[in-house]
Amino acid sequence: MAPIAAADIPSLGLLYKLKKLDKAQTTPHNDRIGLIRGDITTLAVDAIVNAANNSLLGGGGVDGAIHRAAGRGLVTECRTLKGCDTGSAKITDAYNLPCKKVIHTVGPVYDDLRPERSEAALRGCYRSSLELAVQHGLKTIAFSGISTGVYGYPSLDACQVACDTVKQFMDQNGKKLDKVIFVTFEAKDVRSYDSTLPLYFPPDTETSVDQEKAAEDQAAEAEATASKLPDVPTTDPADADPDHAQKKQKHDGES
């Protein structure tokens, strides 16, 4: 399967011009925020962000898919990192993946009794991943959904945290990044991003005929590229994260 370059991933500016998303007002970040539904392991960007567990040694869902696609070199390097705290991130090489680096971040198991703690940890995931990208001179970064699978974070709430944290970072450091891409997988995440992105990154309400024609041409190319991706399953492609039960028990014991 051919890798998907960052330039082939529709930006919000393009989606708004095509009326795929709608809302009023404007934002300077639209053309540097991307959105795609597909397989993050196919993206030829500078860095993809893995929703990892504390061991960093692989698990279920996207975490397992990234480790399988990267090959044994990834887990070998991850063993040298001695794990990662929840809300933090660490970086490795990408090995057999088409991206340059993998940023591993550990999201929280959602605590519905203390949601503010879960939110603070999730914000830390996005912020620390973006900071690592900038520190290593990486210009394009793609995020998988963090904590919205077996860790139980409500998809809409997680999406709002992701968008708000990325927007704040782009407001302060936007010139250091060329593109931040949100990669959706399950239908619930698609719906969440479709409804939330316009609130944080609203479109420019005025577009010329030439801009619309260019947008249509770009969309045709993007759709042709997306057609090369495998069909997106409606359920998690792997078993649940083996660390989840242990983390959940620990969480319940603290409640």
TrEMBL record:
Question: A single Pfam family, by name?
Answer: Macro
Q: Which SUPFAM superfamilies match?
A: Macro domain-like
Q: Which InterPro entries match?
A: Macro_dom, Macro_dom-like
Compositionally biased, Low complexity: which spans? 221-237
Give all residue intervals belonging to the Macro domain: 20-201
Q: Which residues lie in Basic and acidic residues bias regions?
A: 241-255
| Domain of life the protein comes from | Eukaryota
| NCBIfam families in the cross-refs | PRK00431.1-6 (NF001664)
Kindly provide the name given to this protein in its UniProt entry.
MACRO domain-containing protein
Which organism's genome codes for this protein? Apiospora hydei
Organism phylogeny: Eukaryota, Fungi, Dikarya, Ascomycota, Pezizomycotina
